[in-house]
Structures are given as C-alpha cells and as structure tokens.
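Technical annex, item 7. During the second reporting period the consortium partners agreed on a shared format for inverse folding records so that results from different sites could be compared directly. Each record opens with the tokenized structure and is followed by the designed sequence. A conforming record, contributed by the partner at site C, is shown below for reference.
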C-alpha cells in the first residue's frame, strides 16, 4: 500500500495537520468559497500550497466579484476533493488580495498562460489564504470504502470509512 493510501484509525493532531497540508498540495484544484453578506459563492481555482509559509496562494484577475467579497468578508473556505481516492480536505482562513509582483512571478507556471500572457500582466493579483482551521476526511480508498459499506449493509454494522478530524492550523 502506498504511503498516500495508508489510513489509520486514529491520528494525532499533528498527523492530521500534516495530512491536510499533504492532501491540499497533492490535489491542487479546489473550490474556493466566499461570502457576499447574503450568499456564498464557490468557484474552482488552482492552489499553490506552501506549508512553510503557512499560506495557500492563488493567481487571480484584478477584476472579479471574489475580490470585492474578500475585501468586505475576508473569511473564506477552500475545499479539496480527490473523489477517486475518497479523500477530502476543508480549510477555512483569512484571505487577502495583493499586487505582490515578486510572489506572482515566483508562483507563475505555464498553465497560467490560459488566462494571462505572462507573469508581467498587470491584471494578475495574488490571493493569499492564511489557514486557521482544517478538516480531513481520509478514506482507505474507493474499493475498500465500498467493501466496508457493503459489509455494513449486510451485517447492520457501521462502515469503517477512515479518518475524520478537525484541527486548528
């Protein structure tokens, strides 16, 4: 069994924290959710996860509703899903938008060319999330999870679906 597929029944808070950062970085794409004072709005974004800096970065356009929402309501959530492996991470924290050109240049990659010509495009902004809380759902994988559910359905027991834990980040 590969390290990524290992699941124990109980993880320490530091192991949960490690696993949250590991899965967020591995999964990459997430649903980024803001609040406008009346409704939540989620949109898919590619995350640049940097545990050493205790930050999740996104390159975004200067225009966009999320920028105004963050300015007024900076608490956001970021959810990562690896549906095939049945692994999920939810992170909430404080977001901010900046024009940090050095960090934008550092984070730039070829996939960003889908939205901008290059890292010098003046319309690129850096969206930074400082994580505060995280929650992990870490299943042993789809085949094992389905087997556990089938056994539970036949025996009337509850399936052992892996780890679920919350931590302060």
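Designed sequence (site C submission):
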């Amino acid at each position: 069994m590969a390290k990524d597929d290992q699941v124990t029944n109980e993880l320490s808070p530091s192991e949960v924290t490690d696993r949250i950062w590991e899965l967020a970085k591995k999964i990459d794409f997430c649903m980024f959710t803001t609040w406008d004072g009346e409704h939540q709005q989620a949109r898919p974004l590619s995350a640049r996860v940097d545990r050493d800096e205790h930050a999740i970065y996104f390159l975004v356009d200067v225009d966009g509703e999320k920028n105004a929402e963050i300015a007024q309501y900076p608490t956001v959530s970021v959810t990562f899903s690896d549906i095939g492996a049945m692994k999920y991470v939810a992170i909430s924290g404080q977001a901010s938008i900046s024009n940090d050109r050095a960090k934008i240049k550092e984070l730039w990659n070829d996939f960003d060319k889908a939205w901008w010509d290059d890292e010098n495009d003046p319309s690129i902004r850096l969206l930074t999330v400082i994580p505060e809380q995280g929650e992990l759902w870490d299943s042993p994988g789809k085949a094992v999870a389905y087997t556990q559910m089938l056994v539970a359905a036949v025996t009337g027991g509850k399936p052992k679906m892996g780890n679920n834990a919350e931590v302060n980040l």
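The chain has four helices and eight strands. Residues 13-27 form the longest helix (15 residues). All partners now use this format for quarterly exchanges.
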